[in-house]
UniProtKB/TrEMBL annotation:
GO terms for cellular component: plasma membrane. The keyword Membrane applies. This is SSD domain-containing protein. InterPro entries: AcrB_DN_DC_subdom (IPR027463), Acrflvin-R (IPR001036). Signal peptide: none annotated. Gene3D superfamilies: Multidrug efflux transporter AcrB pore domain (3.30.70.1440), Multidrug efflux transporter AcrB TolC docking domain, DN and DC subdomains (3.30.2090.10), Multidrug efflux transporter AcrB transmembrane domain (1.20.1640.10). It comes from marine metagenome. PANTHER family: BLL4319 PROTEIN, PTHR32063.
Length: 321
């Protein structure tokens, strides 16, 4: 009854000379101007088949309420909009809202994000899986290249340094941890791994030539210092225009640029000390790639010498009786 009298109930359509009109049931404007007009509404009783005033069935009370009731997944919902403060990232704000919802809302209540917040939550889970998958693939590729499970571990330990530098740079520049900065961190896996590859590969070559582990890593660090610094400086300066970009869509390029600058710089400075130290500590557990071939060659020479002695042994002839 209230919907028909006050809410403009749509019932059917009407066609007139090719134009379709909606048929809406609604009380006259003068009959629904004040709250007192609600007492003049009558409803039919199912038991007595008579019209009963609505005031006999309900109590009217004025109070504040929502203009309309929204629903999401067949549940009543309320949409709340907010803006980030200058000192908070999007991830921190969402974590705060999650904690506040668990503290204040009843147990059956649910929350769902929209817009950039929803994209951030959806992309965070997928990008984390992508990050771990990229680490695993690079580890397996390096393991096949170096024929060892220790050397790839030494090389990839520069990745946490790069992520730390990237997060610190985002904190200093005031950029939030968004989908673009996370993509930049995935890029860092390939950008910073080359420093460890240069040192480990050259150290392995020196060990194959007979150098000890300490001597090999010292010479490799000295020989590869200039190429590592040159490539790192070129990468950082190449990312500066991206970090300082302006105009439409500059937010995405700025996030990726600062992640590359901070991650490559911090990782390069520390990996020059960390990679040689880890190689000196862990490479003692491995053998040079030519170790197996040299061992087989030694065994072959040893067996050939033994066989030669057997062929040169004197032969004793026993005469027939």
């Amino acid at each position: 009854t209230l919907e028909v009298m006050l809410g403009s109930r749509f019932v059917t359509t009407f066609n007139d000379r090719g134009v379709q009109y909606n048929v809406v049931l609604q009380a006259r404007d003068e009959d629904r101007l004040t709250p007192r007009d609600l007492t003049n509404i009558y409803v039919r009783s199912e038991t007595q088949d008579q019209l009963v005033p609505l005031s006999n069935l309900v109590t009217l009370r004025e109070m504040a309420g929502a203009k309309e009731l929204n629903r999401f997944d067949r549940m009543r919902s309320v949409t709340i909009s907010a803006s980030l403060g200058p000192d908070y990232s999007l991830g921190e704000a969402l974590d705060y809202l999650d904690g506040l919802a668990k503290e204040r809302l009843p147990g059956e209540a649910r929350i769902s994000y929209a817009g950039q917040s929803r994209e951030f939550r959806d992309s965070s889970a997928s990008l984390l899986m992508t990050f771990m998958l990229a680490l695993l693939i690079i580890y397996l590729v390096l393991g096949a290249q170096f024929e060892s499970f220790v050397h790839p571990f030494i090389i990839l330990l520069s990745v946490p340094l790069a992520v730390t530098g990237a997060l610190g740079t985002l904190l200093l520049t005031g950029i939030t941890l968004n989908i673009y900065s996370q993509i930049g961190m995935i890029m860092l896996i390939g950008l910073v791994s080359k420093n460890g590859i240069l040192i480990v590969e050259f150290s392995n070559q020196l060990r194959e030539q007979g150098a000890s582990v300490r001597e090999a890593v010292q010479k490799a660090s000295e020989a590869r210092l200039r190429p590592i610094l040159m490539t790192a400086i070129a990468t950082v300066f190449g990312a500066v225009p991206i970090a300082l970009a302006t105009g439409a869509g500059a937010e995405s390029r700025t996030s990726i640029g600062w992640v590359i600058i901070g991650g490559v710089s911090f990782s390069t400075l520390l990996s020059l000390f960390l990679v040689p130290a880890l190689y000196l500590l862990l490479a003692r557990l491995t053998k040079p790639s030519s170790y197996v071939a040299d061992r087989l060659r030694d065994l072959e020479e040893e067996h050939s010498i033994v066989g030669g002695r057997a062929r040169s042994a004197p032969v004793i002839e026993i005469p027939a009786p």
